[in-house]
Amino acid sequence: MAFPANPVYASKDFVNWKLASNAVNRVSQFPVIRSGTQGNGGGMFANTLRYHNGTFYLISTWASAELGGPRFVVFTTTDPHDDLAWSNAIWPQTPGYTIDPDIFFDDDGSVVVASAGEPIIAAYLDLTTGNTSEPWELWAGTGGQSAEGPHIYKRDGYYYLLIAEGGTQLNHSATMARSKSLKGPWEAAPRNPLVSNRGTGNYFQTVGHADLFQDAQGNWWGVALSTRGGSTLYKELIYPMGRETVLFPLFWPSGGWPVADQVQGRMSGPMPSQSLISQGIGPVVGEPDVVDFVAGSEFPSNWVSWRAPFDAASFSISPAGHENTLRLTASRANLTTDPNFNTSTEGVTALFRRQEHTYFNFSVDIQLGFGKSSGDEMGISNFGTPDQHADLGIVYLEDVSESSGKLKPYLRVRARSVNAFTAPEPTTAPVPEGWLGDAIRLRISPRNESHYEFFASSVGQSGKEEAVGLYSTALLSGDGAGTGGVLGIYATTNGGSYPFEGYVSRWRYQPVAQQIGYNSTIFVPT
Q1: What family name appears in the similarity comment (predicted)?
Q2: Which pTM value belongs to this model?
């Protein structure tokens, strides 16, 4: 449910990936992104990007019970480096209750959409009308469960069909078949699966949902989904960055079948020479955030919100009298929302960036004095969904030591998880008296692969940081969400009727290291 949605990245060297654009970046382009589902999850997933006759086509699944089940949606552009060049949503007919669409352009000009099913199904698509033909069955796979994520390629007179099998957990795999006709019969590859780490001790697990492409030098490559940590940590729900994209080389001889090695943290292949790309709207993946909210600046293009912001006035950069700050107007609902939350009439005041490293430091300074009513709160969050997040907030509550009902700021740690055993009990402690004259710096940092830690300090008293909370990374994991956690800020009245304005400054995301094996860590140069 992130907005902007469907980010597209570009690279010349397969190492430096720059945010080229967000295919969904305007509410007017895709109004359902704001209010099309009342659920805490769903939204957009399972994208396929293809280039044909000067146009990029991005086809995706929009998951929403309110729309009668999964719906296919298409966006097009002739310039993938420009947000505004992406078209409004095109809703082709969805051939039944199915997900994971692929779009394939055949030599005769026909367009085929293939999607999940047992067997995988396909239908002809009329891009002018959006109508699809009666679907037909392709291939059921090699016997694994959940045949999905299909992709069709045409090479040397054959149609090749690549699918995912085994579910998205530890039995995940990518298998292949081919046929002289899209109507079959299909011949399974002699060395299936093409790629999978099931039954291995590899650090990278759950490898599947793959796609293949050829670079400018004619070399073949694959991308796939995977989770880090090995099978033991996976079983303990320790994979807080969710399913990540991995790249692997493969060999595809003319007239033959592609061959690939198992995905590992270090692999060798015919990499292009390193070269940065100049086009695009955003930073290179893995770069730090150094944001001081300078007047006239805009939010970094890699930041997201949960759903589209309901009111743009909820955020203001460097307002008069509060230079180099971001003003937040608090929402009624907090990050968990509540039974009264209605996406058609209200939003949640929060901004995030994706976690991109195993180890990192994320911190923000929060100005005190914002509290007007009991329950007013600002803070930082490690957020997955409204059902999976951990928050370190500064909350104003009535001082129980006084009878006057005077409000006092407290540091509060709260968490929510679908994995109930991973959520720590809430803790609340008064902000130290010596900190009340300064802004308070809140920080999140992983202690190790299995735990995150919250810290707080007074900006005016450097070196006196206090650890205020510890929680399992499993809180952000668990099968179902798929995506990893994001890090950010929020402001809420926790159900109160009177929104307040609060100010934050000095947003920092500092990469530290990537874990790529059980005993292999790559530290980021500082």
Answers
A1: Belongs to the glycosyl hydrolase 43 family.
A2: 0.95
